[in-house]
Write a structure and sequence with these properties.
Blueprint lengths: L1 E4 L14 E4 L2 E7 L14 H18 L7 E8 L5 H9 L8 E6 L9 E8 L5
Length: 129
């Protein structure tokens, strides 16, 4: 059995997918790009601001599912420019109190709406659902 997650505090999906799905004690958060939840448009600003927007979107989706950033067990990061890896890490680290989740980071040639990054996450909630 699976349950879709939706919150107005994160961007509405721009295609046929859910913000997240809860299944088998896990929350699978769809890839998030730096979209403003209110306007549905990519934010302007520094790369740091874009990373924060993506991470805040993920946080909002997890909270809507009854979870937190500390429940994340695996993250996949897509960067258009791997040279931004260190800057991404600096901002990303601010979002985790305990041991950070397992992660992979890859450089890609393009992303939806020509975004600079996209991040997807898997959280474990076990018996919380």
């Amino acid at each position: 059995m699976k349950e879709a997650v939706f919150t107005d505090k994160a961007p509405k999906p721009v295609g046929p997918y859910s913000q997240a799905i809860i299944a088998g004690g896990f929350i699978f958060v769809s890839g998030q790009i730096p979209l403003d939840p209110a306007s549905g448009k990519l934010i302007e600003g520094s790369f740091e601001e874009k990373v924060k927007r993506v991470m805040d979107n993920i946080k909002a989706i997890l909270e809507a599912a009854g979870a937190s950033m500390d429940d994340i067990v695996k993250v996949t990061v897509y960067l258009k420019d791997i040279k931004l890896f260190a800057e991404f890490n600096r901002v990303y680290a601010e979002y985790f109190k305990g041991p950070p989740p397992a992660r992979v980071v890859v450089e890609v040639s393009n992303l939806p709406l020509n975004a600079d990054l996209e991040v997807e996450a898997i959280a474990y909630i076990g018996g919380k659902e």
